[in-house]
Amino acid sequence: MTGTAALIVAAGQATRFGDSDTSSLPKQYMQLEGKTVLEYSLEILDRHPAISQIQIVIHPEHLHLYETHVRLASGKINAVVFGGETRQASVYLGLKALEKSNPEKVLIHDAARPFLSADLIDRVIDRLDEVAAVIPGIPISDTIKKVNSGVIVDTVDRTNLQRVQTPQGFHFATILEAHTAIANRPDLELTDDAAIAEWYKLDVHMVAGSEDNWKLTYAEDLSRARRQLQMRESMEKPNEMNSLRTGTGFDVHAFEAGNSVILCGIEIPFERSLRGHSDADVGLHALTDALFGALAEGDIGSHFPPSDDQWKNASSDLFLEAATQRVRDRGGAINHVDITIICELPKIGPHRDPMRQRVAEILGLNIGQVSIKATTSEGLGFTGRQEGIAAMATATITLPGD
Length: 402
Fold this sequence. Notes:
Layout: E1 4-10, E2 31-32, E3 35-36, H1 37-47, E4 51-58, H2 63-69, E5 81-82, H3 87-98, E6 105-110, H4 118-127, E7 133-139, E8 144-148, E9 151-156, E10 162-164, E11 168-171, H5 172-183, H6 193-199, E12 205-208, H7 221-235, E13 242-257, E14 260-263, E15 266-269, E16 272-274, H8 282-295, H9 300-303, H10 317-329, E17 333-342, H11 352-363, E18 370-375, H12 381-384, E19 388-400
Parallel strand pairs: 1-4, 1-6, 4-5, 7-12, 17-18
Antiparallel strand pairs: 2-3, 6-11, 7-10, 7-11, 8-9, 13-16, 13-19, 14-15, 17-19
Helix pairs in contact: 3-5, 5-6, 8-10
C-alpha cells in the first residue's frame, strides 16, 4: 500500500449550465483558451510528484468526448471507468477501480474545478500524514440569509461556516469502507465525500482552500474562467509591459418597413426595422469598430465589406466575435465596453439587461464589464425626427507591450 492516487470525477451532465449555446457540451469538455476544463486539473495532478496514479470517472455516454477532447497522455493516467447515476455512485466506482493497486491515500477532485494548485495539493496530502480525512475550505465572509419564497426569514451565524472545495483527501482504505457502507443505503444521497466520511463517524479536518479554486457551475462561469486564465498568463510574463488601449466606434442605420429591430444582439418588437446590408445591429457595429480601433486594425467595413454578398443579412454577432478573437490572437484581453444607443424610439430601458448579457456572452466577459446606456437627441437631427438609430461605443483592452 503505497503512494497517493487522484480520483477525478468527470461524470456529470452539467444540467445547471442552462439552455444557452454553451450547454451543447458537458462543462468538463468545454474549451478554455485551447484546453478543456478537465485538462487543467488533470495536468496539475499529473505534474505533482506526490501523485502516483490518476483515475478518471466519466459518464458512459461521454467516452467519445473524452477520447476526442482530452489530449494529455501520461503513464500516471489509468484507463477511464464509467460512473453511476449520481456523483456518490461515480466516486464509489472510481474507488473500486483503484482497489487493486490499493494506494495509501486518495484525493477526490471535481473536474469542474480547473484552477487547482500544487500548493493546495501539498496542504491536503501533508495533513493526511496526521489524520484520516481532510478537506480544503474558505471561511464565509458574506452575511448569510435564510430565505423562504423570496422573503428573508433569518440571518445565519457565519462564525463557524466554511465553503468547502476539492480535492478532498482520505486514507484510501477508510473512505472505500465508508462508500461501501453507504452504497447499501439507497435512501441516503450525500453531496460530497466529506459528508460520507462524517456519516461514517470519521473526523474530517480542514485545511486552507484557495479563492482561485472555484467550481464552474453556470454558463456565465466560462467567461470568468477565461478572464482568470488571461490574468494568470499576464502575471506569468513579468518582463512584458502591458499596454492599455481604448478604441471608439460610431454607427447609424435608417428605419425601413418592418416589425422589429435588432440591438446589441436582442430582437425588439417595433413598428419598423433598421435597413442595412447585414442585420443592421447598430450597437454591435459600433462596438466592433471600437475593438478594431483599439487594435489599430481598421474598421468593420475593412474586415466585412458591404460589397461582399457573404455578409448580406448576416448576424452582427459574427463581426463582434471576430473582433474579440482578434484581441485574443494578439495576446490581449477586453477589460470593459460601453455602448450608448441614440434614439427616440423604441424604449431601450426594458431591454437593457438582456442586451448587456448578450454582449457579455459574445465577448466572454462578466455582465459587470458591459455598460449599455440610451439617450435621445431631444427631437433634433435624424434620430430626433425618428428617421433611424445611432450608436457610440468605447472599448478598453489590454495588449502585451509593443
